[in-house]
Amino acid sequence: MRRAPAPRPRQGTRALRVAAYAGLGLGCVLIGVIAFLIVAAPVELARDRLIEQVKAHTGRDLVVSGPTSLVVFPRLALSLADVALAAPPGMGGEPTLAVKTLEAEISLTALLTGQAGLGRLILVRPKIELRVDAQGRRSWDFADIGPASAPFADSGRHNEGRRNEAPRLVPVSAPAPGVAPSSGGNVAAMLRTLSPVSIGVREGSLHYGDERSGVSYDVAALDADLLLGDGEGPLQGKGSFVWHEATMTAAADLSSLRALIEEGAARLSLRLTGRPVEARYDGSIDIGAGLALKGTLDLKSTSLETLSAWAGSTPLAAARDAGALAISSSLTFDNGRVALADLTGTLGDTSLSANLTIEPRPARPYASGTVQLSALDVGGLLLRPASDAAPEPAMSERPPVQGGPPKGSRVRGFTKRAGGTDWSDDSIDPAPLALADADLTVAADRLIYKDVKTGPVRLSLALDDSVARLTLREVLLYEGRARGVATLDGRGQAPAVTVKMLLEGVAAQPLLKDALGFDWLEGKATLTVALAGQGGTERQIVSTLNGKIDLAASNGTIDAIDVGKILRGIEQGRFAGLRVAQGEKTPFSELAGSFTLANGIADNQDLRLVSPNLRITGAGSFNLPARSLDYTVRAKVATLNASTERAVVNLSNVEIPVRIEGAWDKPTFSLAGQEQILEAVKQIGKTIKSQDVQDAIKGLLGEGDGQQKVKPRDILEKLLKKQ
Question: Measured between alpha carbons, how far apart are the two ends of the chain, in Å?
């Protein structure tokens, strides 16, 4: 009996068996390779090749001071410690790039063959130094070092018996005769071997400094992830950093890294977000002759003061928060010079438009251009609110005149001081003057300083070393016009102010009410002002004022007293007392005088007031710090309209002196000195028409039958108090 033949193994079973044997063999090979890599990987060779390639493509020395090792898990990577890329030859200074640890994820093939194969590059604690020296050389420029070569390309002759030597490199192409080699091309060639690749930056820092202008910037806590696309093309990045103690997040899109390196220009979109600011830039970036930007800028900030501090400038010292800032502008940036064209925006409730140029300078940036504002609040820029402490005493060395400001209800024509009208103790902070030097042409719909407001204004602002010079070209205010120059010098321990101003045709009452707190003078006025003072508050400046004021007013009134009415009453035998009365007015056709100021005291000796039926002259002083006056006016009747039949006393050409003193918002009136009163009484006695009154006066004067003499002051007081 024949035995049946044994069954032949199936084809699939044989394949599985072969696969198993192959897998086992491959596993053994991988284990062997890994073991080899761990024990004797050619990392030093890879490091040396990297150093030579960086030198070939950048002209710089790459120094690896720390150990070089191979990391297997979780990904295969080459790790280099203490890596530094030197500054350009001859420039010296700190390395352009210093990295604590550099990890390059590579493929196994790249490691064994020497071909490029980076998947991710991680820089741990890099320090980036971007510097421009006094000769204009930039640390990020790469030397022209010859034609580009294929990274890690091997001629095949270098490794024979010389395992520790770096390979010789074979150029891929040579430049055309007469054409200078391009360092940008070399770097771009290296990028072609890397892309696509991602780059991570961890705990980095960046410093930019220009020795020519003194401009310097520092960025800390830099964390970023960059993705370089195929063909050295688009570069996308996002990350965060700390600038002036504020954490910012950023996202950027660059159209082509190759174009930026080889041609020096590319498209850039940049978004910046953080607590002090939100900004977006869209436009071009050019590094051909230095860093340059040209595009559009949109910026928002919740506070101008916070933004100023974050930007590294002296914070704006605002008495109140100026409000949120929002602007849109065309932006041109070229080596630190910024041009903002067609700028529009808002600051708080103020709208603005401008064309500005800002240039970096060693001490302060310099700004020039034109600005249009809906309102220019000078007090809001310079004043800080006073503390709750009591106001400082006046700085004047002269004692205040007698008669403090009375308290009580308001009388028409005078402002109630208890309501808050007084010199301000808010601090004048000159810090904003140190923000920049500037030459600006400013137009505003109105200018504001505390309660004083103007109409449209055109002015020039010159800022130089904390000295602001404000030239008012044309100002509409209080129905008139003004022009002149005001200077604020913030260099000393206390700010110094000088004002030279001409105000023409202004309405005196609202101007004096808003500026000084009294409203008893009405009419169209022309004032010539030349004043200087010094101090950290408005009160202190007023107490040190020196200079001169010339006043001329026409067709107005002095409120709260009617001198003509009082004199008519005397003429008719009604001796009413001198008093302030609501609704009373003394009209005039002309009022003029000059005031000389010394330490806040205004002295006047030539006041004259002309009305149809009386003339008034005056002399005395105004104590500006105390807001009080001590003044004597002399009223002389020209012609009164009282009926001659009813007139008892003819006061024509009789001069009656009246003293005005106390707080200027509510002064008191009284008759002047005894000699002047006696002379006035004698003049009145000469013009009395009633024999009974004449006899009474003679008796009072002691000219009768042995009657006792009476003091002239008592006589006149009785006359004027008699109803």
Answer: 171
Q: What is the pLDDT of residue 666?
A: 77
Q: How confident is the model at residue 229 (pLDDT cuts 50, 70, 90)?
A: confident
Sequential DSSP letters for 78-98: EEEEEEEEPPPTTT-SS-SEE
Contact 622, 632 (CB under 8 A): no
Tell the residue number behind the tokens 């002295």, with chain if given: 603
For CA atoms 618, 620, 624, 626, the dihedral sign is negative
Which residues, 6+ apart, have CB-to-CB distance to 3 below 8 Å? none
Euclidean distance between CA atoms 643 and 666, whole angstroms: 34
Question: Helices (H), strands (E): how many in the chain?
Answer: 13, 34
Q: Is 180 left (phi over 0), alpha (psi -120 to 50) or beta?
A: beta
Is 704:698 a contact under the CB 8 Å cutoff? yes
Give whole-number Cα distances, 100 to 62, 68, 69, 241, 355, in Å: 13, 12, 14, 18, 45
Sheet holding 447-449, edge to edge: 376-377, 447-449, 452-453
Query: What are the extents of the domains in the chain?
Result: 37-155+166-173+180-266, 679-721
CB-neighbour burial class of residue 138 (10 A; exposed 0-12, middle 13-18, buried 19+): buried
In the chain, helix, strand, coil percent, each to 5? Answer: 20, 45, 35
ω before 712 within 30° of 0 (cis)? Answer: no
Contact of 590 with 568, CB cutoff 8 Å = no
Structure tokens at 293: 């930007």
Report yes or no: 544 and 534 within 8 Å, Cβ to Cβ. yes
Q: Which stretches of 179-286 are DSSP H helices?
A: 183-194, 257-262
Segment holding 57, helix H or strand E: helix 43-58
pTM: 0.69
Tokens of 162: 């010389």
Torsion from C-alpha of 394, 397, 401, 403, nearest 10 degrees: 30
> What would the two tokens of residue 622 be?
């105004």
Cα-Cα-Cα-Cα dihedral sign, residues 291, 292, 297, 302: positive
Cα–Cα dist 353/374, whole Å: 9
Structure token digits, residue 225: 């992830």
What's the DSSP call for residue 231?
Answer: G
Number of alpha carbons in the 13 Å side-chain half-sphere of residue 27: 6
Structure confidence at residue 601 (pLDDT): 96
Cα distance between residue 366 and residue 438, in whole Å: 5
Chain mean position to CA 707: 80
pLDDT digits (tens, 9 = 90+) for 31-49: 554 555 444 556 777 778 7
Q: Is 53 helix (H, G, I), strand (E, B) or coil?
A: helix
